[in-house]
Specification:
Largest sheet of chain B: 7 strands, mixed
Helix content of chain A: under 10%
Number of helices of chain B: 9
Helix content of chain B: 25-40%
Structural class of chain B: alpha/beta
Radius of gyration of chain A: 14 Å
Number of helices of chain A: 1
Order of helices and strands of chain A: EEHEEEEE
Strand order of the largest sheet of chain A: 2-1-7-5-6
Number of strands of chain B: 19
CATH superfamily of chain A: 2Fe-2S iron-sulphur cluster binding domain, sarcosine oxidase, alpha subunit, N-terminal domain
CATH superfamily of the largest domain in chain B: FAD/NAD(P)-binding domain
Oligomer: heterodimer
CATH architecture of the largest domain in chain B: 3-Layer(bba) Sandwich
Chain lengths: ~100, ~375
C-alpha cells in the first residue's frame, strides 16, 4: 500500500513501470526499488534460506545486510532493497545460493 | 587510471561536509555514493534538528542535503552516484568501485571514509521473519518511497530513533501498539517520548521480545518482562498482534574499508563497535586515510557533519592548500565538537572517545 496523504512529505513518483514478479504483472514507479514496489503490492517474502527454507524479507533496506537477495532477469543474489525497478524486469523469489551467469 | 587528490566515500552528512570543506580549501575532490541520491540517512529524516544554528538546528533532515549538494557542485566536486566502493588496495593506493555494472578504479592520494553505520539485529526466536525490520529500514520505506510498512507496529527501543520513527509511523497511518525497551530508562529525549505518549502510545520499560510468530510473514510477537538486571521474568509473557516489528536497538559502524586498509581498530562499546584509532583531526593510523561520521563511532548527524568538516579541512591541508581560513575553520570545528559533546547525554561518547582518540596515531 502506498501513502497518499502525509502531514510533512509529498511524494513525487516517477512514471509508472510494469515488471513481473513470479510471472505476474506488478506496477511500480521509476526510481523506486524492487523491494519498495513489491512491499507496496503486499509481497514481503523475497528469499528462502537454502538449508531450512525459511522466509526472508529485507531488514536494512539500504544494501547492507543481504537478507533480500532475489533473482532478477535470471541473475541471482540481487539486493532488491537497492536495485531499482525497470520496464519488463523479471523478478523471482530465490530459494538457493544461486549460480552467477557469466 | 584516474588520479585524484581526495576521494570521499559516502555521501551522507559526514561525506558531504567533508567534500564541501576539502574543495573549499582548493582540493580536487571526488565523492562516491552508492545510493542513487546523496544525503545518506538524512533523506528520510523528516524531523527538525536540535543543536545550534551551525548544525542546521530547526531544519528538517531531508532539507539539509540539497544545500550541501548545491554548494559542492558549485565548487566543482565530482559526484559519483550509484557508485559502490568495493575495496581499497593499500599496496598501490587504488580504490575499486562498481558503477553501471562495471568495475572502475580511482587512485586518490587521500581518502575520507564516511560510510556510516548499519542497524543492529536483536536475537530472539524467528527474528528472521519478513515484517521484522530495522527501524531505519522502515523509515526508508515510508519516508523515502512513500510506502506503508505495515498496519500494526511494535517498536523495540526507546532511543531517539525508536521514538521519532514511532511518531513518523503514525504520520504514515500505521497503528503503533507500543514501544518496549529492555532497560529501566528511556534513553531518547523527553520531548520525543512525551510526543508519542500524548498520542496514546505506551512505553513499556524492562520488556523485550521473546519470540516472533507467523507463517511466511510476521503475525504476532511474544514479549517478556525483565528484571532491572535484564533477567527474563517467567510468566510475564504477553502476545501482541502486529505485522510490523521495528528493531531500534542501536547501530554499528560500517568499517570494512578501514579494516581492509589496515587501519588500527579498537572495540569501543560506547561508540557502537570496532572503530579506527584517530587523532583529533580524524586521521587514522594510515596517513592517507581519514574517517568521519558514524563510521568513526555512532553519534548524531550534527557531530558527523562537524567531523566531516574537520577531515575535509585537514585532508586538503596535506596538499598545502590554505585559503587563509584554515586556522579559523579548524579551530571552529574543534570548538563545535567540544560543545556538541559537552552535555550530560554525551558522557558515554566522551568516555568512548578516550579509548580511540590518540595524540599522534602510531604509524
Amino acid at each position: 500500500m502506498r501513502i497518499t496523504g502525509h502531514p510533512v512529505l509529498q511524494f513525487s513518483r516517477g512514471k509508472k513501470i510494469k515488471f513481473y514478479f513470479e510471472g505476474e504483472e506488478i506496477e511500480g514507479y521509476a526510481g523506486e526499488t524492487i523491494a519498495a514496489a513489491l512491499h507496496a503490492a503486499g509481497v514481503k517474502d523475497y528469499h528462502y534460506s537454502p538449508k531450512l527454507n525459511r522466509p526472508r524479507g529485507f531488514f536494512c533496506a539500504i544494501g547492507n545486510c543481504s537478507s533480500c537477495l532475489m533473482e532478477v532477469d535470471g541473475q541471482p543474489n540481487v539486493r532488491v532493497c537497492t536495485e531499482q525497478v525497470s520496464e519488463g524486469m523479471k523478478v523471482r523469489r530465490q530459494h538457493n545460493k544461486g549460480v552467477l551467469k557469466p | 587510471m584516474k588520479n585524484r587528490e581526495i576521494a570521499v566515500i559516502g555521501g551522507g552528512p559526514a561525506g558531504l561536509t567533508a567534500a564541501l570543506y576539502a574543495s573549499r580549501m582548493g582540493a580536487e575532490v571526488t565523492l562516491l555514493e552508492r545510493h542513487s541520491i546523496a544525503g545518506g540517512q538524512l533523506v528520510k529524516q523528516t524531523h527538525k534538528f536540535f543543536g545550534s544554528q551551525k548544525q542546521y538546528a530547526a531544519t528538517r533532515g531531508i532539507d539539509i542535503p540539497q544545500y550541501l549538494l548545491e554548494e559542492i557542485e558549485r565548487q566543482g566536486v565530482e559526484i559519483l552516484l550509484d557508485a559502490n566502493v568495493l575495496g581499497y588496495y593499500t599496496e598501490d593506493g587504488v580504490l575499486g568501485y562498481e558503477k553501471d555494472k562495471k568495475f572502475h578504479v580511482l587512485k586518490p592520494e587521500r581518502i575520507i571514509v564516511g560510510t556510516g553505520a548499519t542497524e543492529n539485529v536483536l536475537p530472539f526466536a524467528n527474528n528472521d521473519l519478513p515484517g521484522i525490520y530495522g527501524a531505519g529500514a522502515v523509515q526508508t520505506l515510508m519516508n523515502e518511497y512513500g510506502i506503508v510498512p505495515g498496519n500494526k507496529a511494535l517498536m523495540v527501543g526507546a532511543g531517539n530513533i525508536g521514538l521519532i520513527i514511532s511518531y513518523q509511523l503514525m504520520q504514515a497511518g500505521v497503528e503503533v501498539k507500543e514501544i518496549i525497551v529492555r532497560g529501566p530508562i528511556i534513553r531518547g529525549y523527553g520531548v520525543h517520548a512525551s510526543k508519542v505518549r500524548r498520542m496514546g502510545v505506551p512505553i513499556n520499560t524492562c520488556c523485550t521480545v521473546k519470540s516472533a510468530h507467523g507463517n511466511t510473514c510476521l503475525e504476532k510477537v511474544t514479549t517478556i518482562n525483565l528484571t532491572e538486571n535484564r533477567e527474563p521474568i517467567p510468566g510475564t509473557e504477553r502476545e501482541v498482534d502486529v505485522d510490523l516489528l521495528c528493531i531500534s536497538t542501536g547501530l554499528s559502524p560500517l568499517t570494512e574499508l578501514l579494516w581492509q586498509a589496515g587501519c588500527q581498530m579498537e572495540y569501543v562499546a560506547e561508540l557502537g563497535g570496532h572503530v579506527p584509532l584517530r587523532d583529533k583531526n580524524m586521521r587514522t593510523s594510515q596517513e592517507s586515510i581519514f574517517v568521519a561520521g558514524d563510521a568513526s563511532g555512532i553519534e548524531e548527524a550534527s557531530m558527523a557533519m562537524v567531523e566531516g568538516m574537520l577531515a575535509g579541512l585537514c585532508a586538503a591541508r596535506d596538499f598545502g592548500y590554505d585559503d587563509g581560513m584554515f586556522n579559523e575553520l579548524h579551530y571552529d570545528a574543534i570548538m563545535q565538537l567540544n560543545e556538541l559533546r559537552s552535555g550530560e547525554d554525551s558522557e558515554k561518547i566522551r568516555k568512548g572517545l578516550k579509548e580511540c582518540l590518540v595524540k599522534e596515531v602510531i604509524r
